[in-house]
Amino acid sequence: MNDSPRPSSDRSEGGAKRVFFRRRKTCPLSGSNAPKIDYKDVKLLSRYISERGKMIPSRITAVCAKKQRELKQAIHRARNLALLPFVAK
Question: Quick one: average pLDDT of 28-40?
Answer without folding.
Answer: 93
